[in-house]
Specification:
three-stranded antiparallel β-sheet, eight-stranded parallel β-sheet, alpha/beta, 15 helices, globular
C-alpha cells in the first residue's frame, strides 16, 4: 500500500514538474515581452512621414526632427538583463521631446549577429529588433534604420566580402568589392528583402507597413576609395535604391552620406574640410540627386577634421558646413537635408563639457533658423545618447543627457522651438505640452 502511494506520488510529480517548468517559462516570456503585447495598441497613433519638396510632412503638417543616435538598441534588446535599457532610452527620448532615433538594423557575423551568414538569421536577434520597433511605437518615437555599415564594427561591408571569399564566389578581397561584386550585391539585396518583409512578432505588422519606421538608410558613411571618380558608388546607390523602392513604396529612403563634395563639385575646394574629402568615392550632390533618394544626410565631426584648430575656428566651420548643405537642399536637390550625426569628442584639445554644449547650440540654431525661413534644413541627430551603466558602449562622444542639467535644458528647448514651428503633432501632444509649459 505504501509502495502504491509512492508510485502515485512519483507519477504525479512527472506531470507536476514539467507543468511548473512550462509555467515558469511563460512567466519569463511575459516579464520580458508581455507588456508589449498588452500595451502596443495603447501608444500614440503614428502616420507615415512623407516628403513634399524640401520638407517632411506628417498629417498635413511640416515635420522637423530633433533626433539622436543610439546604435546599440537591437544589440541590447537581445538579452533580458540589458533589454530594459531600450525602454529607458526611448522613454527618456520621448520625455525630452525627441522624435526620431537612428539605430542599426544590421549586425553581420559578429557577436549577437542578426545575419549569421548570407540569408541566414538568428531569430532571437530578429525578435530583438521587433522589440525595439514595438517599444519605439509605444513611446511615439520613430526610427531611422540603417541597413549596413561601411565600417568594420558590426560586420559591415568587410563581412560581406569575407562571406563571398569563403564561398569561392568573390571577385576580390578588397572591401570595396562590396559595391561592384554581383554575388555580394545579391547578398545585400536578400538582406534588404528579409528586413523589409519581416513581420514583427509583437505587432503582427510587416516592417514595410509600419509607420514607426521613419526611413531606411542604405549604408552608414559609404566610401569607395578605390574609385575616387565616384562612378562605382553611384551605380550601387542607383541599383539598391530602386530595389528598396520596388519592395517598399511607403517609407522614405536615404543613402547615409557624410556630406563630402566630390571631385567634380566646385564646393570641394571651398567647403570640404580638406583635399582628402573629395577623393573618397562619394559625392554629396551627385549621389543625392538620384530620384529614388528622398532626402540627403550630412555628418559633422570638426574635431576629427581639424584636430589642431582652436574651438572657435571649428565652430565657425560647423556653421559654414551646415549652411552650405541647406543651400544645396534648397537650390540643387530640392530635398530635405538631415544632419544625422554630429558630435564633439571629449578627447578634443582642451575639452570642456561646455564646449560640447556650444557646438550643440550652433547645430540646433542653424536648424531652427532654417525652419523659420522655410528652408530645407529638416533636422539633426546627436551622436550619441546612452543610459547609465553603458561605459563599454561609450565612445568619446557619448553622453547621458539627463545627467547634465544644462545639456538637458538645451535639448528640450530645441524640441519646444521646433514644436512651435511645426505645430505639435498628435503623437507628441501630451508630453510636449507638459515639457514646454515647464520651460516658460
Amino acid at each position: 500500500m505504501v509502495k502504491e502511494a509512492i508510485q502515485r506520488m512519483v507519477a504525479g510529480n512527472r506531470l507536476f514538474y514539467p507543468i511548473i517548468g512550462f509555467a515558469s517559462f511563460l512567466v519569463l516570456i511575459y516579464w520580458s515581452f508581455g507588456d508589449l503585447w498588452v500595451n502596443y495598441r495603447n501608444g500614440p497613433e503614428l502616420s507615415f512621414v512623407h516628403r513634399n519638396g524640401t520638407h517632411f510632412m506628417v498629417d498635413g503638417r511640416v515635420f522637423y526632427v530633433n533626433g539622436w543616435n543610439s546604435y546599440w538598441l537591437m544589440d541590447h534588446a537581445v538579452d533580458h538583463y540589458t533589454r530594459p535599457r531600450v525602454r529607458e532610452m526611448l522613454r527618456a527620448g520621448a520625455k525630452m521631446g525627441l522624435t526620431v532615433c537612428r539605430t542599426w538594423a544590421f549586425n553581420d557575423g559578429a557577436y549577437n549577429a542578426l545575419q549569421i551568414s548570407p540569408g541566414r538569421y538568428d531569430e532571437r536577434v530578429f525578435r530583438a529588433l521587433d522589440h525595439v520597433i514595438a517599444e519605439a511605437r509605444k513611446h511615439g518615437i520613430r526610427l531611422l534604420l540603417s541597413l549596413v555599415n561601411n565600417l568594420l564594427p558590426y560586420g559591415g561591408k568587410t563581412q560581406y566580402v569575407k562571406w563571398a571569399w569563403e564561398e569561392g564566389v568573390g571577385l576580390s578581397s578588397s572591401n570595396d568589392s562590396f559595391f561592384y561584386d554581383p554575388s555580394i550585391r545579391n547578398y545585400f539585396k536578400n538582406h534588404v528583402k528579409a528586413l523589409l518583409t519581416r513581420r514583427n512578432t509583437f505587432t503582427g505588422v510587416q516592417y514595410r507597413d509600419d509607420p514607426t519606421i521613419f526611413a531606411w538608410e542604405l549604408i552608414n558613411e559609404p566610401r569607395c576609395i578605390s574609385d575616387p571618380s565616384g562612378n562605382t558608388l553611384q551605380d550601387w546607390i542607383e541599383e539598391m535604391s530602386v530595389f528598396v523602392k520596388s519592395i517598399d513604396k511607403k517609407h522614405l529612403l536615404t543613402i547615409g552620406l557624410e556630406g563630402f563634395y566630390g571631385p567634380k563639385s566646385p564646393k570641394r575646394l571651398t567647403v570640404n574640410p580638406g583635399e582628402w574629402a573629395g577623393n573618397l568615392g562619394s559625392d554629396f550632390i551627385r549621389n543625392s540627386k538620384i530620384s529614388t533618394i528622398d532626402f540627403a544626410t550630412v555628418h559633422i565631426y570638426p574635431d576629427q577634421w581639424f584636430p589642431e584648430q582652436e574651438l572657435e575656428e571649428k565652430l565657425k566651420y560647423v556653421s559654414k558646413w551646415m549652411v552650405s548643405h541647406i543651400e544645396d537642399g534648397d537650390k540643387e536637390l530640392r530635398k530635405p537635408i538631415m544632419f544625422t550625426e554630429f558630435g564633439l569628442s571629449n578627447l578634443s584639445k582642451g575639452f570642456q563639457p561646455s564646449q560640447r554644449e556650444r557646438f550643440y547650440k550652433i547645430a540646433y540654431d542653424v536648424i531652427y533658423e532654417s525652419a523659420q525661413k522655410n528652408d530645407s534644413g529638416a533636422g539633426s541627430f546627436v551622436w550619441q545618447f546612452l543610459v547609465g551603466g553603458m561605459e563599454e558602449y561609450n565612445d568619446d562622444y557619448g553622453i547621458v543627457p539627463w545627467e547634465s542639467p544644462s545639456m538637458y535644458r538645451l535639448i528640450t528647448q530645441h524640441s519646444c522651438r521646433l514644436a512651435v514651428s511645426q505645430g505639435v503633432l498628435p503623437s507628441q501632444k501630451e508630453h510636449l505640452k507638459e515639457l514646454c509649459l515647464q520651460r516658460r
